[in-house]
Design a protein that fits this description.
Keywords: DNA-binding, Phosphoprotein, Transcription, Transcription regulation
Pfam families: Response_reg, Trans_reg_C
Number of helices: 8
Number of strands: 14
Distance between the termini: 25 Å
InterPro entries: OmpR/PhoB-type_DNA-bd, Sig_transdc_resp-reg_receiver, WalR-like
Structural class: alpha/beta
Oligomer: single chain
Protein name: Response regulator transcription factor
Amino acid sequence: MIQILLVEDDENISFGIKAALKRKEYACTSCTTIEEAKRVFTDSFQLVLLDLNLPDGTGYEFCSWVKERSQMPIIFLTVRDDVKDITRGLDMGADDYITKPFHIAVLESRIAAVLRRIGSEQNTEEKKGLLSCGDIQLDTEKMQAYLDGSPVDLTALEYRLLYVMMENKGRTLPRNLILEKLWDAEGNFVNDNTLTVTVKRLRKKLLDTKYIVTIRGIGYRMEECV
């Protein structure tokens, strides 16, 4: 059974989330403070749902604490909807950021997307060099993209962009993080306008794929369920 750690100090929100997770047959352990969350935290959890405003600190603090110890995925739940706050959380390694109020179905969908990504990464270890999202496949050993089994001719930059997004399928990637990864790949600078144009061209070559989702003001997410 999937074990989820919920760190949320609002009792009403916590109750609603736990009830929804139980219906989905997830096991949920809830905490109201960072101190309590640190006490109960173990590697047996597969996911952390984390409020940003907590009685004894911020979710950013607990996120950093977790990331120092594991690569466990984290989804922020918060009333803060400023782009700077969202980007800060994603840059710290959080997998997603959901602003309150939210529909419980949205939370369930985001949780499912993160868990699928984890499963995909595990399968990738077993099937080295193969990444997939819907009808898009990427053979990293051959450095070849496919759409529904047919090869797609990509430039080096388009390939690297697709690789970064598929490697992080289900995770929202801020534009600046994508730019850093593209820059690091070759040691060449890629600016914001180049990224916008490259995404547009990549989508066109993938026949206007719906799997590359634009997150307004933040960046992009490769999402299998849209």
